[in-house]
Amino acid sequence: QKEVEQNSGPLSVPEGAIASLNCTYSDRGSQSFFWYRQYSGKSPELIMFIYSNGDKEDGRFTAQLNKASQYVSLLIRDSQPSDSATYLCLIGTSYGKLTFGQGTILTVHP
Amino acid sequence: EPEVTQTPSHQVTQMGQEVILRCVPISNHLYFYWYRQILGQKVEFLVSFYNNEISEKSEIFDDQFSVERPDGSNFTLKIRSTKLEDSAMYFCASSRGGHTEAFFGQGTRLTVV
């Protein structure tokens, strides 16, 4: 089993819809969970982080963490064409290691 | 706003040569990372560095690679005897703590010919 897995893409949603991105991880010692966005040819940029079980909202973005089931998700409400990018989950273990999932390509079409 | 800076932005080298990729992490950060992204593929963890030593490394980070913090501000990745398959974008990142968000530099595109 891969350390961090994301749902296979590409994911295509219409403008204004909700985009749902999921990530599962294998290491139960994982303590920190991040969502990054990467535009083609650019470096990853942080969208949100979450450390505790439950939901965390920031504007149009909501991160959800369930440590018992070992998954973290990102919801994007009112999706915009500018949200089209690759979304990466990044999981931190207790050993100072941050591991990316393989990324999900999101396309928001007008 | 503080940022992670990487130099050069693009490096072309001949197969078999040694390259050094340079990074200046954010000044009050304590953890430093190198990642690699081969074109069209995922971002792969190479190594993390804390308290002047490697804290974690992946199976990719073999004897061909080494990291160093030579002067308290720079963080370097050395790749010895480069191979064609080392061609990739290399990202440096830093974070305040082992569980806090990492900030990424703009990357160095390494092309081995």
What are the SSEs and their pairings?
The complex is a heterodimer of chains A (110) and B (113).
Chain A: E1 4-6, E2 11-14, E3 19-25, E4 32-38, E5 45-50, E6 54-58, E7 61-66, E8 71-76, E9 85-92, E10 98-100, E11 104-109
Parallel strand pairs in A: 2-11
Antiparallel strand pairs in A: 1-3, 3-8, 4-5, 4-9, 6-7, 7-8, 9-10, 9-11
Chain B: E1 5-7, E2 10-13, E3 19-24, E4 31-37, E5 43-50, E6 53-57, E7 65-68, E8 75-79, E9 88-95, E10 103-104, E11 108-112
Parallel strand pairs in B: 2-11
Antiparallel strand pairs in B: 1-3, 3-8, 4-5, 4-9, 5-6, 7-8, 9-10, 9-11
Description:
The complex is a heterodimer of chains A (110) and B (113). Chain A is built from no helices and eleven strands. Chain A has strands spanning 4-6, 11-14, 19-25, 32-38, 45-50, 54-58, 61-66, 71-76, 85-92, 98-100, 104-109. In chain A, the strands form two sheets. In chain A, strands 2, 4, 5, 9, 10 and 11 form a six-stranded mixed sheet that branches. Chain A has a five-stranded antiparallel sheet with strand order 1-3-8-7-6, with no helix packed on it. Chain B contains no helices and eleven strands. Chain B has strands at 5-7, 10-13, 19-24, 31-37, 43-50, 53-57, 65-68, 75-79, 88-95, 103-104, 108-112. In chain B, strands 2, 4, 5, 6, 9, 10 and 11 form a seven-stranded mixed sheet that branches. A four-stranded antiparallel sheet of chain B has the order 1-3-8-7, with no helix packed on it. In chain B, strand 5 and strand 6 form a beta hairpin. Classes of the chains: A mainly beta (110), B mainly beta (113).
